Amino acid sequence: MNGWILAATVVLAVGLGTALWGVGTGPLGRRVVAQNLSTALVCPGLLLLAQGYSRTSYVDLALLLALLGPVGTLVFARLLAAELADDPPRAWALTWAAAAVGAAVVAVLCAVTGPGRAMVKLLVVGALLVGGNLLASRALSGAFTGVDRG
Predict the structure, then answer these.
(1) Residue 52 in contact with residue 104, Cβ under 8 Å?
(2) Helix-strand-coil split of the chain, %, nearest 5
(3) Distance (Å, rounded) from C-alpha 74 to C-alpha 72?
(4) Cα separation of 36 and 51, whole Å?
(5) In the predicted model, is pLDDT for residue 103 greater than 90?
(6) Looking at residue 88, what DSSP letter applies?
(7) Residue 57 and residue 45 in contact, taking contact as beta carbons nearer than 8 Å
C-alpha cells in the first residue's frame, strides 16, 4: 500500500462514513446535503486511487461523477422543493470543507502529474467538482430567490 491509496482510504472512510450516516438518519435537509457531500468526497477518493493504482480510467469515472453528482442534487432540490422550503438545509461549513478537500487533492495531483493532457483533465474535474457542489449547495439552501422552486 502506497501513500496515495492510504490517503484515498482516509478520504473515503471518513467522508463516506459521515455521508452515509447523514443519509440514513435525520431530517430531509440533512439527507439531501449528505447526498451532495458524498459526491464531493468520492471524486477526490477516485482521483487518489487513480494515482495510487496508475489507472487513468478512475479519472474518467471521477469526471463523470463530478459532472452528474451535482445535477442529481439539483434534481432532488427541484423534486423536494416544497419540503425543503419550510426548513432549508444550511451546511456551508461542510460544503466548504469538502470543496477544500477536492481542491487540495486536485492541486497535489496536478503538481505530481506535471503539464500535459492529464493535468488539464484534472483541472476540469476539479472545476466541475468544486463549482458544481457549491452551486448545488446554494440551490438546496434556497439562495436563488428569483427562481421558482416548485
Answers:
(1) no
(2) 80, 0, 20
(3) 5
(4) 24
(5) yes
(6) -
(7) no
Task: Report the pLDDT value the prediction gives residue 146, as an integer from 0 to 100.
Answer: 54
Cell of 48: 487518489
Query: pLDDT averaged over the chain?
Result: 88
Residue pair 15/24 in contact by the 8 Å Cβ criterion: no
Long-range contacts, 142-150 (Cβ 8 Å, 24+):
142/84, 142/85, 142/88, 149/77, 149/78, 149/81, 149/84, 149/85, 150/81, 150/82, 150/85
pTM here is 0.88
Q: Nearest-CA neighbor of 51 among 40, 62, 35, 41?
A: 62
> What one-character DSSP code corresponds to residue 92?
H
